[in-house]
């Protein structure tokens, strides 16, 4: 009965779209730990738990609507914001019309610690809630925005475009919550109507950051005596005019800002020049610096993205990076290293988590050119996996779609590291006639069981390989999947793996030469190629001139491989090569230079 009533209430507040929230995909993100993040993706109407260290593998999910409306996206929840806290037994989300709490068996941090998010899908329950202390006139009016909870659960706030800010207790979110009240009204501290986009707690928990399209208000929530001024109806705020500081970057052009976070003495702002009607220029990240002497922010510098180029999906340096146009949330990833600073961005149009490493500009103040951007691409056809009848009959889940096991061929060592673009990597696999470039799910499965080439077998060393994964995407006007690509057709992913840090992906132009190993998936049993068919970078011209010999050699190698498979489980003659008999793991396909290493399995 309880489930039935909750489902009935939920149906009242679903299927109500917001006209000014364009694009479907991951709209907001909550970092659980350095490794795991929770996000709300409106294209599949679900909370997804993404493993940043497994190349964006989805390791947990919770569908927000009742399964009876799977085929009717008009009745979906359409989430726009998400938060929780270390000791919270709830996830909190919003859509434009309602505030929701999702009851958990245990806090997300505990699930992350146990590497088990299975209870999220099995034992969680979503319920709409409007606290007694919140004026009901603001409910169901389409103007609810973002939600933020303090990391320790000491406070929680929800923004409303015409109402301002409402408080609640994240640790005890009962309808009768005495702390739930209207704490900031529009007009107070210069906060204008219809102009609150983002909200975040600062890491000190002494302030909340309210971002509007032109400026930011940093509002005090902890006085020197430890009390919260908002509980006593006192609103004290510092106003930061973002357009005043940043529009010089574009010759004074009008700019729009969506969100801001603070790391140490630096503010990182999400925004771009205001696009003209019909344009979809991607967002950018800007950095402002706090000056203790002036007690003011200054020196707006663009550190990632363009702001002027069309939406795209490009990783690498901050200058090279491109994002989609409809991103409106960023968050700080908690890291174990005090000198590591990473911003997580749910890239709505690309349906991926983008990770922006700003460690250098934070630690050195000046090295804004050393920002690095990479991806956790979680969208393995999730809409089809979650809602097609074929996938349902096959028992497919988002978690199962993340890995695809099988056989692979590779060879490690520095002598086998080659400069290749995607086509060259594909040619190397085709040349031996026994494989193709691996996909991301295939790479996840193989790297997780320690099956990958390295220069020296050291867990600190990097492994880089091309993947047969497109970086093309589109602007989704409705929930679902892209029917065609609006950008990225000339870009492919590379996988960068290190056992101690995990697997990350980067989208680069498929014509770009990258120092990579050749790793192929497909035909045949487990095997390790010796790499003799490859040519070094200095021999590229010779390779092009020796096609006929290469073709003959390829056929010879196929014959050897077939005979090797035939002999794999048979007694070997005395002349049988030692590297094929004693110093390799035939059962798993591990390379000769390393034993079976299961530590990587922890990343899936």
Description:
The chain has a five-stranded antiparallel beta sheet, with no helix packed on it. Strands 1-2-3-4 form a four-stranded antiparallel beta sheet. Strand 14 and strand 15 (215-220) form a beta hairpin. 15% of the residues lie in helices and 30% in strands. The chain is an alpha+beta fold and 604 residues long. The longest helix has 21 residues, at 547-567.
> What is the C-alpha radius of gyration, as a whole number of Å?
26 Å
Beta-strand percent range: 25-35%
The side-by-side strand order for the widest beta sheet comes to: 21-25-24-23-22
**Class per helix and strand makeup:** alpha+beta
Largest sheet properties: 5 strands, antiparallel
Task: Determine the mean pLDDT.
Answer: 84
Task: Write down the overall geometry.
Answer: globular
Helix content estimate: 10-25%
Could you list the spans in which at least 5 consecutive residues all have pLDDT below 50?
1-8, 16-20, 524-604
The N- to C-terminal Cα distance equals 37 Å
Number of helices: 11
> Total number of β-strand segments?
33
Topology:
Blueprint: H1 2-12, E1 26-31, E2 36-41, E3 46-51, E4 57-63, E5 81-83, E6 90-95, E7 98-103, H2 108-113, H3 118-123, E8 125-128, E9 144-149, E10 156-160, E11 164-168, E12 182-185, E13 198-201, E14 207-211, E15 215-220, E16 237-241, H4 242-246, E17 255-263, E18 266-273, E19 284-291, E20 296-305, E21 316-317, E22 331-333, E23 342-347, E24 352-357, H5 359-363, E25 372-376, H6 382-387, H7 389-393, E26 408-410, E27 418-420, H8 422-431, E28 436-437, H9 440-448, E29 463-470, E30 491-498, E31 502-509, E32 514-516, E33 519-521, H10 540-545, H11 547-567
Antiparallel strand pairs: 1-2, 2-3, 3-4, 5-6, 6-7, 7-8, 9-10, 10-11, 11-12, 13-14, 14-15, 15-16, 17-18, 18-19, 19-20, 21-25, 22-23, 23-24, 24-25, 26-33, 27-32, 28-33, 29-30, 30-31
